[in-house]
Amino acid sequence: LVLGDDRMLGRLAQAYHSLRKRETQKFCLTPRLSLQLYYIPVLAPEEPATSRHSELQELAAFLGRADPWYQNTVNTLCPAIHKLAEMPPSLDTSRTVDPFILDVITYYVRMGTLPIYFQIYTVKIFRDLSQGPTEDIFLTELKVDVQDSRLLKDGFSPRRKGAADGPGAELSICYQKALLSHRAQVVTGSLRATGLVLKALPTSDTDGSGPPHAPHSAVPITDHTCLNVSVTEVVKSSNLAGRSFSTVTNTFRTATIQIQSQDQRLLMLLLDKDGRRTYRDVVRIEVAPCPDPCSGTHKSRASWLGSHQPEAEGTRAKPKPLLMPINTFSGIV
């Protein structure tokens, strides 16, 4: 049972990925652990009730749209828990304690048996293109901003004259466009932008590109898994008064994306809205669905059991994505 906001769920996804990865190291001795995850959205007391309030509860809002029982039962606990935390402690043992919160949590744990599966994404972070990347994962959001203070390298010249003028940075973007036909269509290009936001959750219940989900007894559906990318592009215009800059937001959907700075500006990353998971001085990133570490052990397990046997067809299959389940009452309805 996890209490917190989207930042806490990002840390939970890190722990979940680490657990699955450790299970593959000694597959003969360690069975795959069956986990039942329950989530109750709770914000820290210092968080003001502003737009930041809703930004940190996007996953809870998605669960509420997907499951009306979750919305009417679990999502109502957040204000009740805050009121309980603000109450002064009482030493009067004869005072009746309101069992509402405990009853709702118990009901959720007993009756919430249908999970919704969320895709975990991996991001490769390059601070130097001549060296290997640092890898991390995120669950709900990856924010990319342009740093203003430092340059890529001493003596590095821009790709063209005037490339470093104006706000933002010149970015090279390559992504695989998400199509209903599931055909692979790679799009490449460059643009000037001040930042990007990659969201793994749909913004409304009419958006069909949300995280993968499946009934309790079915195989999770991952065909429609994609990231919703918002790019704040810088548009330059010239007139008699001189040059001026404006911004416009472009959106698209993709499953994988590669972003690289082409001029003197470096990038800063923020994973799952968590200030403790920030990367600075980044030159290039590569984002893709995180593969399930256990799916990569089939070939090793088959060779360990009998190297003389022919390789099974399933061992040559594409690695399965790593999905983190969160239990609800009815799943997707």
CATH architecture call of the largest domain: Sandwich
Kindly report the average pLDDT value: 78
Low-confidence stretches: 154-163, 205-224, 301-305, 311-315
Percent in helix: 10-25%
Question: In angstroms, what separates the terminal alpha carbons?
Answer: 23 Å
Strand segment tally: 14
Number of helices: 7
The whole-angstrom Rg is: 23 Å
Summed up, the domain count is: 2
H and E order: EHEHHHHHEEEEEEEEEEEHE
Largest sheet: 10 strands, antiparallel
Which descriptor suits the 3D outline?
globular
Task: Indicate the structural class.
Answer: alpha+beta
> What is the CATH top level name of the largest domain?
Mainly Beta
At CATH level 3, the topology of the largest domain is Tumour Suppressor Smad4
What percentage of the residues does DSSP assign to strands (E)? 25-35%
Keywords:
alpha+beta; 333 residues; globular; two-stranded parallel sheet
